[in-house]
Amino acid sequence: MSAQLAPNPYTSLYAKGSPERGLHALGLREKRFPLSTESRDSVTARMWSDAKNLTWDARKDIPYHTFDRSKYSQEQLDAARLCWSRRAWTEYTGIVESPSMCIRLCLEGDQPIETKFLLASKVFEEARHCEASFLLADAMGGYIQEPPPHDAIVKLVVAGFRDRLAFNPNVSAEAGIAAWHIISEGIAVDIFNIRYQWTDEPVTREVIRLINQDEVRHVELGWAFLEERAPHMTRAQLDEVELAVRDVIENVEMKGFHSIFMLEDDVDSIMIEAEAIAAKARLGFCPPEAEHKAFVQCIQNCRARFAKIGIRIPLYPQIE
Ligand SMILES: [Fe+2]
Ligand SMILES: [Fe+2]
Asked: Which CATH code, of 3.40.800.20, 2.60.40.10, 3.20.20.70, 1.20.1260.10, is assigned to 72-307?
């Protein structure tokens, strides 16, 4: 005699709304099996090993207490803590958005397992970048919880990669990763490199160094994934990557997402002035001309490397 199952009281709750819910309603489907675990390339395997070994604790490994406020004017400290608060908001965007790309790849069991592991660890890494940034802002006089009211920066700290790329079934995983990891994170890394060189305050330098140690891996992951996939892709699929890459260059990065000096001239933001002051004090930011040069160099390097796999980035005479 079979046992009678009691009716599930939650069924009506879950049955509400469209029969297609969650990611299915967006048009994304899960095909978990066969779940491949083979290591497909040595570069990604080495990166996964690095991600496990090059770990650091944003709270314990950085000597924030040695930051000497007496060396700076109140104006410099206020500017720097505002800019490092913005860094925390931007890194927080990484926590909110990054899991979506991990989910997107994990929906398909056949995607490279180490790429998925790296995307999983990336969420943890963005979290410690956020933590290091707000702890540094605290050391400079106090983390600020939100952008100044009505400041143009408000819409810039929300990138929208999740909806635009990862959870958009019309955008392939290759296109999403190329636009997000190679372009957006690539620009972040190159700008951080130039800021690191310019910065002379030891605690701030250490924060930048540790964050960039992780960020370099996020960019390499993008290239490794795309360059392994590209030889197997059709022209139409490469065109799709090209479109997504151009969208992020032209509508996210050239609009100031990572380099605030790219904000249009008529945009009202006190962040621009704050960053110029923090740059002059060498507290983790650098002069606009140096940052612009790093930005353009990054686009040019990407253009050359993309060209090798048949993806074209046009010239941008307005910035180059
Ligand atoms: Fe980050
Ligand atoms: Fe990152």
From this structure: 1.20.1260.10
Q: Which residues share a beta bridge with 96?
A: none
- Going by pLDDT thresholds of 50, 70 and 90, the confidence category of residue 298 is very high
Asked whether the predicted pLDDT for residue 65 surpasses 90, the reply is yes
Tokens of 213: 């140690």
Smallest CA-to-CA distance from 97 within 152, 28, 164, 44 is with: 164
CA of 231 to the centre of ligand 1 (A): 30
Cα of 91 to ligand 1 centre, how many Å? 5
DSSP-derived letter for residue 108 is B
Cα of 287 from ligand 2 centre, angstroms: 23
Out of 24-28, 79-83, 263-267, 298-302, which region has the weakest mean confidence (pLDDT)? 263-267
Q: Are 132 and 56 in contact (CB under 8 A)?
A: no
CA of 318 to the centre of ligand 1 (A): 28
Which bin fits 164, alpha (ψ -120 to 50), beta or left (φ > 0)?
alpha
d(CA 193, ligand 1 centre) in Å: 13
Distance 42 CA to ligand 1 centre (A): 24
Measured CA to CA in angstroms, residue 179 lies from 75, 102, 114, 132, 265 at distances of 37, 15, 20, 26, 26
152-180 pLDDT per residue, tens: 788 777 778 899 899 999 999 999 999 99
Ligand nearest to the CA of 121: 2
Closest CA to 86 of 261, 298, 287, 275: 275
- Give me the pLDDT at residue 11, please: 72
Across 16-31, average pLDDT: 80
Rounded distance from Cα 214 to ligand 2 centre (Å): 7
- From the CA of 217, the nearest ligand is 2
